[in-house]
């Protein structure tokens, strides 16, 4: 399965989640509920930083959608891979 992976030097999982939800809902990211009300963005970023030797995924509800972040950097919204290209 192809997907978008993170450029860890210029992006973070938490920012990708906000962008994915904004794209999915056609909402300005600044108008969304703050991600920190749903999940700790710093913890999410630390869990999936590129020097962490971890294979994991995190799933949570945000803005009425199911979000999954995988350790390879893939962000899915309602089971669909978010592609910001």
UniProtKB/TrEMBL annotation:
One short Pfam name that applies is HalOD1
Halobacterial output domain sequence ranges = 10-78
InterPro entries membership: HalOD1 (IPR040624)
Origin: domain of life = Archaea
Name the chain's protein: Halobacterial output domain-containing protein
